[in-house]
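Amino Acid Chain and Its Fold in Token Form
===========================================
What this section holds: a protein sequence and its matching fold, both as plain text.
Structure line: whole-number tokens from a learned vocabulary of local backbone shapes, matched to residues.
Purpose: to set a sequence beside its fold so the mapping can be learned.
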Amino acid sequence: MTQSIDRRGFGRICAGLAAVAAVGTGRIAHAADLPHVDEAGPQAQALGYVHDATKADKVKFPAYVAGSQCSGCQLYQGGAAEWGACALFAGSAVSGKGWCSAFAKKA
């Protein structure tokens, strides 16, 4: 016994197969795979990003508070890792001990 498939059914099957293929062959990027943010880069300079929070320019960025660092920021996605992704620096990893002027303390 043969069963026919209408156009909508065929479309659903194709969409499902395309989604499975996209997810199945995709590579998940980890922070360890990301290049480190260049402190001399234009975005890092504008935000005052430094790999070591104790070296933040306290005159230029008076909002810096001693003890604040990327690992304690809401934008940091590295958990307790030494380096992690940051929502501000797409495609690059920031130091967990770093700091920038966009620092927003985790709740």
Summary: The longest strand covers residues 83-85. Residues 19 and 25 are 10 Å apart (CA to CA).
